[in-house]
Design a protein that fits this description.
Layout: E1 5-18, H1 29-48, E2 58-72, E3 77-81, H2 88-95, E4 103-108, E5 112-115, H3 128-138, H4 143-157, H5 172-185, E6 190-193, H6 202-217, E7 221-225, H7 229-235, E8 238-243, E9 246-252, H8 253-266, E10 268-273, E11 283-295, E12 298-309, E13 317-324, E14 329-333, E15 346-355, E16 362-371, E17 379-389
Parallel strand pairs: 3-7, 3-8, 5-6, 6-7
Antiparallel strand pairs: 1-2, 1-4, 8-9, 10-11, 11-12, 12-15, 13-14, 13-16, 16-17
Length: 427
């Protein structure tokens, strides 16, 4: 049987515009006019040639995908995983025919239903009822086929009371519920689902995962993109790992998740450089680089911090505040309560090694503070670096964590005894 999806040497590039910063504070009027004329001429030429139009003085070619090749058989359930910017969403957009590839080709042997972002394929001015028929028509379904599935779609989405309300008044959760219900029930041969399910509540996520499992058992193909490794593991037998636009691994999902976890932990998570105006403070945190090491539940966050000291000042120390992506504070890292950094003019390089608590999967950010006393701060920078936890600290956990229960999973132990039926509890 031929593959339902065949991807051969797929590549997608974008042009990125950059604005040149003037080397001098003074710029002649003729230079400004000349730059604007060149920019206008370049945009007009790109428009005439049917190319992408970008803003900026000069452009750079960026490859979101490069030389991606693999086949998917009918009935396969594939988890596509990778860090942010790896090319996952770009691949799904090409599969869904939202954008065209720069090179290579994709052969699709069936109808594709995609759910890539909130409101995909919906018209905001139309009601939920009208959008069900509109989306079904886009998928190539006739009215009789849509009516046959209509009641199931409405029941699954749980939007009966708002069925005749324009979807622009729906909450993001209602939007996603209806969009997923339409995509999953109108029987496409290929179902493509991006991270958009994270918008729904925990019960709806379980419901969607169950529906995708039923879809796959019916012989249809599912492509599932998620940062929730527990959900990917429970739903997908196979996994494809993307790294910087390339296929880094393809095979059993357990091995794919292990490859992703091992490689994503070893690389630099993020880099931050200060770009605001100087202040009167004697010291300024100038640059921060971070990386993760280790595996759950024993992961370390390494931070290399460059501090500029413009004038002599008293000794000081540093602290780091860790936040979950929901903006909830998680923990404070305080390496020393005594001032351990000299206040001498120059550049000070500080390396912090933070033992992270067992954190649930998600994206976290870090604020940094420096000062001689907790009531006196020299500098405080917010949301400088971020890092992503991809695996649960509980080995073998198959269902997703719920941030409402907390982001730290405390280690615990238990002892167990049983007693005969006639035993009574002493009061």
């Amino acid at each position: 049987m031929p593959p339902i999806i065949s991807i051969e040497n797929l590549g997608k590039s974008y042009l990125i515009g950059h604005q040149s910063k003037p080397a001098e504070s003074y710029t002649a009027l003729r230079d400004v006019i000349g730059e604007k004329a060149k920019s206008f001429g370049r945009k007009a030429l790109n428009l005439a040639r049917g190319r992408q139009i970008v803003s900026g003085d000069h452009t750079e070619e960026f490859w979101a995908l490069r030389d991606v090749s693999f086949d998917i058989d009918p009935g396969d359930v594939i988890g596509i995983i990778g860090s942010n910017g790896a090319g996952k969403s770009t691949l799904l957009k090409i599969l869904s025919r939202i954008t065209e590839p720069t090179r290579g080709r994709i052969c699709l042997n069936g109808r594709v239903a995609s759910l890539l972002e909130v409101g995909t394929g919906f018209h905001p001015e139309l009601s939920g009822r009208e959008n069900i028929f509109l989306n079904g028509a886009v998928l190539g379904m006739n009215r009789r086929e849509i009516l046959k599935k209509f009641d199931e779609i409405v029941a699954f989405a749980e939007v009966e009371k708002f069925l005749d309300t324009p979807v622009k008044r729906y909450s993001s959760g209602m939007y996603v519920r209806l969009a997923f219900a339409v995509a999953a029930h109108l029987e496409p041969e290929i179902l493509v689902v991006d991270e958009v399910l994270a918008v729904g509540d925990i019960n709806f996520q379980k419901k969607c995962l169950g529906k995708m499992s039923d879809v796959s058992k019916g012989g249809r193909t599912v492509l599932f993109v998620s940062h929730n490794m527990a959900a990917v593991r429970s739903l997908c037998p196979r996994g494809v790992v993307l790294e910087k636009g390339h296929v880094a691994f393809e095979g059993p999902v357990i091995e794919a998740i292990e490859h992703y976890s091992n490689h994503s932990v070893a690389e630099v998570c993020s880099k931050w450089t200060r770009n605001d105006s100087p202040t009167q403070s004697p010291i300024r945190i100038h640059q921060i680089e971070s990386r993760l090491s280790g595996k759950q539940p024993c992961i370390k966050l390494h931070c290399d911090i460059a501090i500029e000291c413009s004038q002599s000042c008293s000794r000081y120390f540093m602290a780091a505040d860790i936040f979950h992506q929901s903006h909830s504070p998680i923990a404070q890292a305080l390496p020393e309560t005594e001032c351990f950094i000299e206040g001498t003019p120059g550049i000070h390089d500080v390396h912090l090694e933070i033992d992270l608590p067992p954190l649930i999967p998600g994206v976290y950010s870090v604020d940094f503070w420096a000062g001689p006393h907790y009531k006196t701060g020299y500098d405080y920078v917010k949301k400088t670096i971020s890092f992503e936890i991809t695996e649960s600290p509980i080995v073998g956990r198959s269902h997703p964590h719920k941030p409402e229960h907390g982001c730290i999973v405390s280690p615990c132990r238990y002892h167990y005894k049983s007693f005969p039926v006639e035993a009574k509890i002493a009061v």
